[in-house]
C-alpha cells in the first residue's frame, strides 16, 4: 500500500508545481496586441569582430546610452546587449577590442569589465577608482606572449592581466587632485608617456617605465584653452601631442621630448565650424592627422620638423574618409554625395592614386537621415573569387544617429542591406493621433447636406454615397477573386521602406490603430503605426534641439487639428530651440503622412525670440485649428499661427499662465488682457516664493487636457456621496533640498522633498506636504482629484508610493462649473503611503475615451517589467479594520505593502530597461487604453483596467449561441401553431 500512496503524492506534487506556470498569456496571444523594439543609441566606440571564426560577421558598439552590444552584420539584429545605469555610474569611457579580448571602461575607471565576445558573458570585473567625474582611457599591450591591459584613471596607471584582471603593477600619477583625463601611449622601448589634462589650466607630461616606475620630474605646460572635451591626440611618432583649440581656431602642438610650450598653427586656409575637430591619425603618411573642418570637408595635415602642420590634401564635399592597410597597400576610402538620394563610395590606392573599381559603388541613402558623420570599412579578400579581389563591408553613422550597412554584391550592385534607427532611443515627446476615416465613410457627413438644401437633394446624396459604397465593395470582391495582393520585399530589420497600403492609414472599427508621433533629441520626428510598430514616415530637422529645463530635455509636441475635420488636413507642431540662433523653432506637419504642410518651411519656422512658455488654446478658428500661445524671454505675447490671434481677442474667456524660474525659486502668475487697441497685454497677478535658499524646484505636473472625469463624486457605504475636488487649474510642484541637522549625532545633512498643490490661476496654495529623510527622483501622476508619487525613503532604505486625494466634502459647492476665483472651501485631503518592493523608472495613469473605466497606474519597474497597478490599491481610504460600510463600498483592507503580481506585468517576458517615460492614450473602446513605453527600448500594448466589458470575449461561442437562438425561434413558431390548433379544437367542443 505504501507504493501507491507515494505514487499519488508524487503525482499531486507534479500537478501543484506545473499549476504555478499556468498563469499568463496563451502562446497565441503573445505579440498579438503588443510589440517591442530594441535599440543601442548613438554610437560612441565601434569595432569589427576580429576573432578568426567570426571576422567581419559581427561588430561591437558602445553607445552614449551606456550600452555595450554586439550586432550581426548580415541583418543588423542585436546578438547580445548589456545595459548599464543611465547615471554617471554607467557611463562608458572606452570600449577596447583586440583579437578575442573585449573590455569596457566605465565612470572614470570605477568599473573595468571584460566580456566574452561571442556570448557577451562577463568574464571578470575590476574597480579601480571612485572619481566618476573624470575620464579613463586604456589600450592593450603584449609582453612575454601574454596580453595585458593598461588603464589610466585620474590618479593612477594600472597594468592588468587579461586572463583574470589581476593587477600586475600600478603607478601613482602626479597632480591627481586636478587632472581629469590622461592620454597614454606605449613607446618603442616599452615605456609609457602620459599627458594629463587639467581643464582651463595646463597639461602635465610624465613618463612611466615598463615596470610601473613614475618619473620624478613631471613637467607642466600652461594651456588655458584646454578642456576635457577638447579633441587631442598623441602622434604616431610618440613624440608630439596635438590639440585643436576652438577658441583660437588653431592646432596646438607640444613636443614630448623637450617639453616647453605649445606651438600654434593657425588654420586660415579654410573656414571652420562648430564641427571642427581632430578625428584621428592618418597611416601611411608619417606623422599626419585627419582634421574635420566642416561636415563635408576633411583635411589631411602633416607635421613638419618645425612642429607645425602643413596641408597635405583637402577632401572637398567628402563626409567621411578612412585609410585602410590591406594587402600591403594603403587604400583611401571616401564617402561623398552623388545626388540627393545616393552616396558614392570611392577607393584609391595611395601609392599611385589609382582608383580601385572593385570597391567603388553607389549606396541608396534617403535625405531624411542627414549627412553621414563617420564610416567604418572592413576590407576582405573574396575567397570564392580566383583572383582574390578585395571586397568591402561598410557601416556608417548618419547625423540622425542611424546606423547603415552597405555591401557591394553581384545580385544587387547598389543594395543598402539594412539600417537601424537609433534616434528612437532618444524619444522626448509622444502623441497618438487618430487615423482618418476612409473616403466613403467621410461622405457620410455630406449625406445630411446643409440647411439650405431640400429633402430631395439630401436623398440624392444618400443614394450617391450608398452606390459608391456598393461599387467599392464589388471591386474588393473582384480583386480577392482574381488573387490580387500587394507584395513588398522587406529586409529582416528594416522598419519602414514600403509605401503604406491604403487600409493601413484608415481608422479601424474600434479606433485601436493609431499613428504614434514621436519627437527625438537629435531632431528626428517619426510616425509609427501602433498596430505593427513599423515606421510610416520620418522627418529630420537638423536645426531642431530640445529645451533644457529642470536638468531634463524637452520638446513640445501638440495636435492643433485632428483628423475629425474632413476635408482639412490634420496638423501637428513640434516646438524646440534653433541650434543656430537659440530662438524658438516651430515645425508643423501632417501627422498621418508626415508631410510638411504647404506654406511652412521644410526646416522649421524660427520665431525670432527665445521661448519661455507655450500653451495651446482651447478655442478653434474657422478652419478648426487651435493656436499656440508663446511667451518670450521679455514676457511678451505671441500666437502661432498669427491668424489665431483674432480668436483670442474675440474669446470671452480669460486666459492665464504661470512661469517658474528654478534659479530664483519664484512662481509667477500672469493674465492675458485685450486692450483698447485690439492688442493683448500681459498683467502679473500673483507671485509665490518657494525658498530657493532651502530647496530647488525639480518638477511641475498638471492634468492632461484629454482626460475626462465621468463621476463627480464617490458613493460611500452609507449611500452618501463624497464629492471630488476637481480643480482643472491645479498644478503639483515638487521641490527637493537638504536640511542641516542641529544634533551632533547626525553625520550630515538629511534630504527632503516637498509637494505643493497650487491653483495656477490665483496662485492660492491649496496644500503642502513635506517628506523628511526622503529623496528623489520623484515620479508624479496627477489625475482627476488625486496625485500619486513615488520616492525613496532613506530612513527605511526602501521605495515608497504616496497618494493624495482631494475632496470637497459631502456637499458640492458648484455642480455646473469650477471657478478659481470663487473656489470651494479648503479641500479635505486624504493621504497615505505604501511600501513598493521595486524601484521605479516612470509612471502614468490610463486614459479612456469617456473616463468610465477604472483607473490603473502603468509603472515601469527597474526590474524590466511594466506593471498595470489598479488605482484601488493606492486608495488612502483603505481601512485597517474593515467595517460593514467599507465592505459595502468595496474598499480593500489596508496593508502597507503593495503586492507585485507577475500576472499584472503587461510585457510578460519582454523586459524594458532605462525607461524614460510612459504615455497612455484612449481608444475607441471605452474599456481599452493604449500604452507606449519609451527609453532605450520602445514597447506598445493595450490594457483593459475593467476588463473588456464592451466587447464579446474571444472565446465567445457564436455557433452555439446562434444555434440555440435559431432553435428557440423555430420552437416558438411550432408552439404557436400547436397552440392555435389546440385552441381551435377546444372551440369545436
TrEMBL record:
Where found, per UniProt?
Endoplasmic reticulum membrane
Which SUPFAM superfamilies has this protein been placed in? Quinoprotein alcohol dehydrogenase-like
- InterPro entries given for it? Beta-prop_EMC1_1st, EMC1, EMC1_C, Quinoprotein_ADH-like_sf, WD40/YVTN_repeat-like_dom_sf
Cellular component, GO, one term: EMC complex
Predominant location = endoplasmic reticulum
Membrane spanning stretches:
958-979
What family classification does the UniProt entry report for this protein?
Belongs to the EMC1 family.
Which N-terminal stretch is annotated as signal sequence? 1-22
How the protein assembles, per its UniProt entry?
Component of the ER membrane protein complex (EMC).
Say yes or no: keyword DNA damage present: no
Q: What is this protein called?
A: ER membrane protein complex subunit 1
In its keyword annotation, does this UniProt entry include Iron-sulfur? no
Which gene produces this protein?
LOC106056497
Gene Ontology terms describing biological process: protein folding in endoplasmic reticulum
What is its membrane topology? Single-pass type I membrane protein
- Pfam families, alphabetized: Beta-prop_EMC1_N, EMC1_C
